[in-house]
């Protein structure tokens, strides 16, 4: 139910609906694609992707571009204390229907991860404005800070603080992998805002994102209704042994951190294969000191990324890793210390919003695949405070966190159209409290 010069309702048979009119609000695909191209040009890397690690100079340039676009649209732009940027179309009354995602990337980022969700949100607002629609509620698009967690852990830090899952001071004192604190870097790039966190709960939240996995393409679907996000356990493991001469130190006398790092890496692979199902394990970063050909290393530091859709299984995987680390430390006579970098339980999205996504997809004549997300997303944090779900578009060959990340233009544009449809539906929906809004996830 919307009011104003054009009254455009949801697609689901509610009072005031006008499905034909609704269909007439088309997003401008060219504008969306041009913006994606322009944003990808900030921090460009070989292969057509982008590197905009959180709170770097290139992240600042990307933010500046988004703020310019938001202001050009007449949105009210606010920046909160951890740097989340929200552009709000101040229209109607009550809590906004919010969308958004992130524009920070991993070092080897593609051009769609996160960027699509932000720019699609902007496109939805601009299309509705251009069509003369006046929504009953405000509509907001948010650029969440440091979603990737590649430079500052935990990942999804901005949205986590937004929903009150992590204190502001703790967030600001988080150290980057290259040294400086989150707070110092935020100030340096000019995005230490004043709007307090936690932020207000939106009426509902929906995020458009590329799948980043192979399921939709492999099974021949163009769009997915995302049912939730798998649990994530991140830790950093530091192994200390005895640095020594590679030629003179007998094998029996070695206390070799590189060997232990390698065995731990193999253990994770075997664990995931043994557990099967959704279990995935990754060692993405290994640093050996002093990293020289003829020196038994002094230390090795590696990161473990362990995920499962089932919390019990995720806990079981963590317990096995604990046991292995204890055993190998004793066997190889090394000291092992560990730091938990992120721990999020699996999240289930609100079935009412998942249903809305599904209706939007089928309403435009597409078949729909329900699926959980393997990647972490800001939506999983917003799910703590309001009805939330996501829309997926396919990723060619399931490749992501790689400049080769690719989604067809037609899917990007139609996905944005679906986002518009879902947001109209959410504007129309009065939610009663549901269990989906209770905080069941924690950072430990
Ligand atoms: C974020 O992209 C993650 O899932 O690691
Ligand atoms: Mn992302
Ligand atoms: Mn990502």
How would the blueprint of this fold be written?
Elements (H helix, E strand, L loop, with lengths): L18 H6 L4 H12 L16 H16 L3 E4 L5 E5 L7 E5 L13 H16 L8 E5 L13 H6 L5 H5 L9 H7 L15 E7 L4 H5 L3 E7 L1 E10 L3 E2 L11 H19 L4 E10 L5 E2 L2 E10 L2 H22 L2 E10 L2 E2 L2 H13 L4 E6 L4 H5 L5 E6 L15 H20 L16
Parallel strand pairs: 3-4, 3-5, 5-15, 6-14
Antiparallel strand pairs: 1-2, 2-4, 6-13, 6-15, 7-11, 7-12, 8-10, 9-11
Helix pairs in contact: 2-4, 2-13, 4-13, 9-10, 11-13
Bound molecules: glyoxylic acid (GLV) and manganese (II) ion (2 copies).
- Please state the structural category: alpha/beta
Rg over CA atoms: 23 Å
The shape is globular
Ligand names: glyoxylic acid, manganese (II) ion
List segments where confidence is low: pLDDT < 50 over at least 5 consecutive residues: 1-23, 435-444
Fourth-tier CATH superfamily name of the largest domain:
Zn peptidases
Number of DSSP-assigned strands: 15
* Helical content band: 25-40%
The average pLDDT is 93
- CATH class annotation of the largest domain: Alpha Beta
Q: What percentage of amino acids are in beta strands?
A: 15-25%
CA(first)-CA(last) distance: 42 Å
Structural write-up:
This protein has 444 residues and is α/β, with parallel strands linked by helices. The protein is built from 13 helices and 15 strands. The protein has helices at residues 19-24, 29-40, 57-72, 115-130, 157-162, 168-172, 182-188, 215-219, 257-275, 311-332, 351-363, 378-382, 409-428; strands spanning 76-79, 85-89, 97-101, 139-143, 204-210, 223-229, 231-240, 244-245, 280-289, 295-296, 299-308, 335-344, 347-348, 368-373, 388-393. The strands form 3 sheets. Strands 1, 2, 3, 4, 5, 6, 13, 14 and 15 form a 9-stranded mixed sheet that branches. It starts with 18 loop residues before the first helix and ends in a 16-residue tail after the last helix. Residues 1-23 and 435-444 have low confidence and may be disordered. The site of glyoxylic acid has 4 residues, from loops. The site of one manganese (II) ion has 5 residues, from loops.
